[in-house]
Amino acid sequence: MPLSRSSRLKAWVDGLSRGSRKHRRALHFHARNTLSTFWAPTQSKKKLSTGDVHDDGHDLLVRAGFLRQAQPGVFHTLPLGLRVLNKVEALIDKHMQTLGASKLALSSLSSQDLWEKSGRLHGRNPELFQLTDRKGAKNLLAPTHEEEITNIVRHAVQSYKDLPLRLYQVSRKYRDEARPRQGLLRGREFVMKDLYTFDLTEEHAMETYSAVQKAYKAFFDDLNLPYLVATADSGNMGGNHSHEYHFASQRGEDTIVKCSACSMSVNQELYVGKHDATSGTLGVKHDVAVWAGPILRKLEKKLIKPQSEQQAAQFEQTYGQTWLEYEEAYSPEASKRTAGDQVESVLKVYYPQDCELNLHAIKRLYSNLDTSNVDPQKWLDARQGHCIHLRDSRISESQCYPPDVDHSSSEPLRLTEAPFLLTKARENDTCPDCGATTLRLHQAIEIGHTFHLGSRYSEPLGATIKDASNEPIAIEMGCHGVGVSRLMGATATMLADAQGLNWPLVLAPFRMVLVGTGNSSVDEVVEVYDYVMHHVRNMSGNMDFDAVIDDRERPLGWKLNDADLIGYPFIVILGKGWRDRKAVELQSRRLGVKEEVGVEDLAQRIISYSQKL
């Protein structure tokens, strides 16, 4: 006579443990994850005032016991949060190994001298945590490590035979944000992965860049979440080739312009639109808006010569050369020049009033344009007669004159037609690549960035090697980051709902929680735990699957609400079905699953649903 389902389950567990019930209880406390021995300090939900919506992702991370705020922009990571960060790091390690990258850990203290040499110190002063030790040495809490890693490689790598080289770390970074906000999305301390690549030639560096992009896409594919890749601006990092990786989210601070008909995808900051003369809109008359701003004089080059042999030696030791060259800016704070002295000319821009001006596009034409000015009239008054008139191609020349002026009899304006649209992209605008009217705008959270740096750091910091001809050549570099703590915050923000967090399977602190009821004993919950864990791993090819038992002395309703708040992908409940027919209730909120499953089928059902999580 065949054994019943419950008998087979008990026989399997007995064979696994081959011990007494007392021994199995000891295993329960020492070899299995239990919430009675794992600190998860969740908080009850505050009463919401009328009109408030459910908590956002960051609020839920705090309420669910993943984080606690230490001060604005600084957070302590609690055990649940640390499990998520560790899983992100493990996934990073997996994909960095495919690139042949070696893992290291760089100091959080970075020498200000190196930042002086690279030219980045003074441009970023407000956001740097700077400190001086008792001996007068100046350091900063590193927001990034290009200078330090370049200095290491400079002394360690001498020959082209040592390249290519790929080094990465996962470490804490620091940035003195003026307005920390959105929790982990814009903080003053954060965890980040940096991959630094070193190649002999630009051609080799671009091959490395392509390999990194492939690894990044594989990494983000493993998250099983939708993401966007967009061409981006390198900004203060330097270099001329970079891409951003984003999660689409209404809480994102970036806007991605993407064409649904072709592969064009670009950050709004880099978007340049083209006017379609065949679309029938060329003759459409737009109301005109005017923007004005100053074009500053080009910065003056100044040369500092050493006044003594001792100073020359100091320059050589600190900067690698015996003379210094710097650029003097024309800012009111830095000099006593008048507005007229600082401004070379004034730019007046004419564009359609129903569109938003794209200052990033205009700065492509006039790099010295000051877009931060809030009172353009003082510049206009100071530089009367030195005005450049730039019009969008959708604005006619006649529209650039004041309405009460007969432009045919007045002195003509020196009008320049822009070679591209001067406004930001809008939904259904014409794609500049394929010409289809299929542009879509996505608010997004940046979670990764890849940069080709070229010799931006190797040249000023002296990271050169001898090539095959024994000639010195600056190393070609790349820098590729993933915001580890930012990824946790972005995922929480993207997937959170009114009930709590919703983790993708690969990042969840635990992939499954088992909850007993009055219809099941602690030992029975443990037996189901062991049975499922064993069979999920065996049937899936050793899937990395972890689970936790909620054995706390709390009401069932409280436990289930807590499980929803934390956001486990799977919840297994041993309720009435267990008492009557040894079946459990399987829940997956993200998938909308709530069903009764026999224990023998539970492992296979979890494996099947896992493909969607």
Q: Could you please describe the fold and organization of this structure?
A:
The chain is of the alpha+beta class and 613 residues long. The protein has 3 domains: 5-38 and 500-610, 3-Layer(aba) Sandwich (Rossmann fold); 80-235 and 445-492, BirA Bifunctional Protein, domain 2 (2-Layer Sandwich); 288-417, no CATH class. Helices cover 29% and strands 26% of the residues. It contains 16 helices and 27 strands. Strands 3, 7, 8, 9, 10, 11, 12, 19 and 22 form a 9-stranded mixed beta sheet that branches. Strands 24-23-25-26-27 form a 5-stranded mixed beta sheet, sandwiched between helices. Strands 13-16-17-18 form a 4-stranded mixed beta sheet. Strand 26 and strand 27 (593-598) form a beta hairpin. Helix 3 (57-63) crosses helix 12 (484-495), helix 4 (79-98) packs across helix 7 (202-223) and helix 4 (79-98) crosses helix 12 (484-495). The longest helix is centred in the middle third of the chain and has 22 residues, at 202-223. This is proline--tRNA ligase. It comes from Pseudocercospora musae. Keywords: Aminoacyl-tRNA synthetase, ATP-binding, Ligase, Nucleotide-binding, Protein biosynthesis. Residues 81-490 form the Aminoacyl-transfer RNA synthetases class-II family profile domain. Its EC number is 6.1.1.15.
